[in-house]
Amino acid sequence: SASDTSSFLKKNDYHRLIALWGSVSASQGVARMYGVNAIPHTFVIDPNGIIRFTDHPMRLTESFLDTLFQ
């Protein structure tokens, strides 16, 4: 539930995450900002905080990850 998730995040000090499980109107703006138009959706963020991949996880290939982490 949203309550359980919220408690877990607080307990484990995940204070910088954006909750997307709330109301549809609240989450749509964030989803739109990050180009999320389907679920599941995956992001790969490099050590510098740059988003290197955003799409369906089935499109994330091993060869892409190899080049990203070389």
Summarize the structure.
This protein is of the alpha+beta class. It has helices at about 1-10, 25-35, 60-70; strands spanning about 40-45, 50-55. The chain folds into 2 domains: about 1-35, no CATH class; about 40-70, no CATH class.
Describe the overall structure.
It is a single chain. The chain is α+β, with helices and mostly antiparallel strands and 70 residues long. It has 2 domains: 1-36, no CATH class; 38-70, no CATH class. It contains 3 helices and 2 strands, in the order ααββα. It has helices at residues 2-11, 24-33, 62-68, and strands spanning 42-45, 51-55. It has a two-stranded antiparallel sheet with strand order 1-2. β1 and β2 form a beta hairpin. The relative contact order is 0.11. The mean pLDDT is 78.
Beta-strand content estimate: 5-15%
Order of helices and strands: HHEEH
Number of strands: 2
The spatial strand order of the largest sheet comes to 1-2
Helix residue percentage: 25-40%
Instruction: Please count the helical segments.
Output: 3
Shape: extended
**Measured on Cα atoms, how large is the radius of gyration?**
14 Å
Distance between the termini: 39 Å
Low-pLDDT parts are none
Give the mean pLDDT.
78
